[in-house]
Design brief:
- This protein is an alpha/beta fold.
- The chain has two domains: 12-77, Chemotaxis receptor methyltransferase CheR, N-terminal domain (Chemotaxis Receptor Methyltransferase Cher, domain 1); 88-270, Rossmann fold (3-Layer(aba) Sandwich), CATH 3.40.50.150.
- Helix content is 39%, strand content 18%.
- It has helices at 12-26, 35-48, 54-61, 67-77, 88-98, 119-131, 145-153, 166-172, 188-191, 225-238; strands at 108-112, 136-142, 155-157, 173-175, 183-186, 194-198, 211-215, 239-246, 260-264, 267-270.
- The strands form two sheets. Strands 6-2-1-7-8-10-9 form a seven-stranded mixed beta sheet. Strands 3-5-4 form a three-stranded antiparallel beta sheet.
- Strand 9 and strand 10 (267-270) form a beta hairpin.
- The radius of gyration is 20 Å and the shape is globular.
- The structure holds S-adenosylmethionine.
- S-adenosylmethionine binds at residues 26-28, 78-82, 86, 114, 116, 120, 142-144, 147, 200-202, 217-219, 248.
Length: 271
């Protein structure tokens, strides 16, 4: 008697508060079927803060003094799933079609725009270091600071690296021993090639500068068409003519107005 039982699934009204928050902050469209998932992910925070329901938690994270908790909530809600050499067709295309045609007189600039814990930018960096004889530069960003902290450390369990080709692993990774058995660490020669920074894709991209190739994969899938259109418009202002855009094979630019030729599924080139 007297103890409070917390519900671990938000009511529809509570859920709609989080839908609006996530949409406004990140552009992400949380569909109704994610209500249970949201509840499971945030429930431990309600418990930790001794709050009775999701509305109280919502009010808590919106308080000016609790911006750190707001960040934590957004991090718990978003999906960070990634792994080395995910969607290998992009890496084959980069090696076989893009690299042979890049200018030797100019630095080739790449941006990994939703880098998560770093597997994507490190896959790119390994390929570039191994195969590219011209000068190149790689930027990687994400809205979530925790995933970038992980990325900078560059330590991964073997599961994340299951598609990492053996020659890259041999050349660019250190094998964990003792308590790090089952883990590997990306060598500094590769880690130092990636410039990490926090960036929200809803923001103006002018600060990024002009680039030649953008990886923006498995993130636009969560956005509304309106947000996707804004991002594509923005991307077109910083991608050089004939520059490349790689999106996920589960995403499409279909229905958006843009200035790209589709070269093969999930690979676009600016006109
Ligand atoms: C599923 S991961 C994709 C990782 C990698 N690109 C891949 O394809 O494996 C999605 C990432 O998008 C990030 N993200 C979500 N909304 C974002 C936004 N508005 N701006 C920048 N990054 C965002 C998340 O933090 C997450 O790390």
């Amino acid at each position: 008697m007297g103890t409070t039982t917390r519900e671990n699934i938000p009511t529809k009204e509570e859920f709609s508060l989080f839908q609006t928050l996530v949409h406004n902050r990140l552009g992400i469209n949380l569909p109704a079927h994610k209500r249970v998932m949201l509840g499971h992910r945030l429930f431990k925070r309600l418990n930790a803060l001794q709050l009775n329901n999701f509305r109280d938690y919502f009010n808590y994270i919106n308080h000016l003094e609790h911006t750190k908790e707001l960040e934590t909530a957004l991090e718990l809600i978003t999906t960070n799933e990634t792994f080395f050499f995910r969607e290998e067709k992009h890496f084959e295309f980069l090696q076989q079609k893009v690299l042979p045609n890049i200018s030797v007189n100019k630095t080739f600039k790449i941006w990994s725009a939703a880098a998560s814990t770093g597997e994507e930018p490190y896959s790119i960096a390994m390929l570039m270091q191994y195969h590219c004889r011209s000068s190149w530069q790689l930027m990687a960003s994400d809205v979530n600071n925790s995933v970038l902290t992980h990325a900078r450390k560059g330590i991964y369990n073997d599961e994340r690296a299951r598609f990492l080709p053996a020659h890259y692993r041999k050349e660019f990774c250190m094998k964990g021993i003792d308590e790090f058995q089952g883990f590997m660490r990306v060598k500094p020669s590769i880690r130092n090639k990636v410039q990490y920074f926090t960036f929200n894709l809803l923001d103006d991209m002018a600060s990024i500068g002009m680039v030649d190739l953008i990886f923006i994969r498995n993130v636009m899938i969560y956005f509304t068409d309106e947000t996707r259109q804004k991002i594509i418009d923005n991307i077109q202002t910083i991608l050089n003519p004939k520059g490349w855009l790689f999106i996920s094979h589960s995403e499409t630019l279909h229905g958006l107005s843009h200035d790209f030729n589709i070269v093969q599924p999930a690979i676009y080139q600016r006109k």
